[in-house]
Each structure stands twice: as structure tokens, then as C-alpha cells.
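Box 3.1. Reading complex inputs
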Amino acid sequence: MASVSATCPRFQPLFSHSNKTGRAPGLKLVSVGWAKFTGFPSLKASRFRVSCSAKPETVEKVIEIVRKQLALKPETVLTSETEFVELGADSLDTVEIVMTLEEEFDINVEEESSQNITSVQEVADLIEKLVQQKAQGES
Amino acid sequence: MLSFQRSFSVSPSLQLPSPMETHLWFVVPDEFKSVSLLNQYMELLSPCEKENVLSMRGEQLQKQALLARTLVRTTIARYQINNRVVDPRSLKFKRNVHGKPELEWESDGGQCPSPLRFNISHTSSLIACGVTVNSSIGIDIEEKQRKIKNNILAFARRYFSLHEVEHLSAISDSEVQRQEFVKLWTLKEAYVKALGRGFSAAPFKTFTICIKNGFRRGFDHADDLESGAPEVVVESSDHPERLTNNWQFGLFELVSSHYAAVCMEKDKTSDAGMSVPIRLNVRKTIPFVEDECISGTDAVVPIAGLIEQF
């Protein structure tokens, strides 16, 4: 991950340029979202768009939010496979995490969907699905 | 049986809770430092429970998970059924169709299924188990100081009912608002857990919990009841005709650090319209070491609902 963040400053001008031209409307939605919260430029986002399961960046963002909500120690290892029960998340934590994710990704998670989420990977996959659905709905 | 009695001090067995009684037992994780005691507790758990405890990330979480299962097993085992001593290790648990944990009581030779019902709630600093007889029970405990990471009103608008949002919005002091939010959360959680049908069967937005200022309903109240104690009422937002007056609530402060909410079914033999108090007994425990009854002390401070401590 250290190598990724090191490349960010190099791409900055490229991001702001593509945002102004508004060349790919669908892409713009995702890229604005990414830039706002992760600093990742649109170019990086477009490369990963086609994959079926969640982008590593989405998983990373979920992990970051979960860490903050549960005030986890830095040495606590979190991977995409980590299940929320293992982290001692209670129901209020889970609902807060979902709400934070809704705000971060500008999506709406139905209560029924959030019922079936047990791991970081599942949350990330659900987010991607909802972000894509939203992008398709708007284009 | 013999080895069980030698290894663990058998707690004096208790009478089962009567109707409208809740016995609340709790542990404070910080009070458990002895590795040998924790190892003893580990021996009480089923293989599946042990696996779950060990899958928790970090020692603190493992300890909390261990104490939670220990609390449930040892608490239930205290209540002697049919004059037989119960080994906490022998208890079996199952989930109802909706996923709520329940006691599985094998009936052999005409034994009745266990009337004991329980519900558990944890925070990192306190784990509690409520026990009743023949009444569905839900409990929720939260730290009084719990900080909400999201904006409270935004959260309430997203998850709570309209009336609840209005109630919270009307509070100008942000600290008081946060406290009221936490109290409301515990009551809503306790209700959903008492219903035992899972979060999706009663999404938080579909019901309103209202703490009404105490008023006399025109019935004769016993002298020792809190006069004017705020009443807690639940109403269904989307199905107003749905029966909700069969649930009784109690909200109180526990050991000055936590809010505790209890929701139980009203005793079926009492009049539906009458509000009978929840008789509450609260005990802090270190299983196999000591128990301390704290009901009626300043460690239990009623906030709302009809509560009679004993």
C-alpha cells in the first residue's frame, strides 16, 4: 500500500484535468467519489472498474472505516476475510459503520441487505454493487 | 457429578424468577485477571463456543467472549430445576427460527421443558444476562459515555422513527441529546431482542418508543412504587393496530457507568390495561467466586418504566 500512496501526488494534475473536461460521465461519478475520499485519481479508478469483486481500494476504505469505528489497535490485523463478529462489533457499531459507508460512497443500503453481511469482503462487494447500480441509474 | 462438585464451588441454588420478575446478572471484565480462573471458565464451554472465543481478534475480545458464555451458563445453572443441581457444562443452546439464542432442554421421562428465558448484552466494560420465567426478554446495555461517530440527528433520521427524530431534535444541549439518543437506542434494542424475530422483522424505523412523563392511570398503585415514574410505551409506526401494549419496559442506570434497558412480556394473567411493575433483582458476579446483590442501592438508579427492586 505504501507504493500506491507514493504515486498519488504524481497523478494529481491528471485527475483534476479529466474532471474539468467531463469526458466520461459514468466514470466521473466514480472518480469524483474516489478523489474526494481516497485521493485516488480517475485513471486508477477506470482501470479497475471491470472487475467482478470489490476493488482493493474499496476493501481498504471499508477496513479504514471499521478500524475507526471500533477503535482497533494498529496491530489488529484486518483483511477482506475478517468477520465483524471477530472484532467485537456490537449492533450500534455495525449500524454506524453502514451509515458511514453510505455517506462515503453516496449509496443507500437496505436493512435487509445489511443483515447478510458478515465480513469485510461482503461489505465491499455490496458497496461496489450499489455504486455501480447508482452510476447506471444516473447515466 | 462428584468431580464437578470438587472443582467448582456450588453456588446456593436459587428460586426461579416469578412472573414479571427479571433477574439481571452481570460481570465486569476488568475484574477478571486470574488466568487459572479464566481457564476454569473455558472448561465450561462447548467445543463450538471455545472455537468462537478463540476466533476473536485479540486477548481482550477473547476474554469478553469467554466471560459472556460463562455468564450465561453459570447464571442459568444457578436455578435449580426439579431439585437437581445443574452442571453449567451440560446446558445446551439452540437458536429459534429467527436466530435468537434459547435454552434447549431435553425432556426425558416426562420432564417439562425449561421455563427459563434469557437474553444477553455486552459492552467492553460490562456484560449482562437477564433471566425470566415464561416471559420473552430482551436486554441492552450501553456505556453512558458512548460517543456516536456519526451526527446524531442524521443517524436518527436514517434509522429512527419520525416521532423519535422530533423528540431528539427538540433537545438543544448536545450532551443531553447524546444521552437521550443512547437511552432510546437501548430501549429499541431491548424491544427487538425481546421480540426475538431478528432486526429485519422489526426495523427500527417501524416502531416508536416514547418516554411519557409519569401520570396516574386511575388504578390503585402500591405505595412503594415510584410515583410519577416516566412510562415507556412502544407503538408501531406502520401498523398502528399491531398489539404493542403487551410489552413492559424498564430503563435504569447501572453502576453509574451504563444505561440498561429491559423489555419483557407482560404477565398473561394480569389485565392487559394494567401496568404492573417489573420486579428487578440485580447482581454482580464473579462466577464461582462471589456474588453481590446491588438492587436497591445507588448502583441501580431507575430512569423510566415501572420498576420495583428487590
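In summary: Residues 2-21 of chain A form the longest helix (20 residues).
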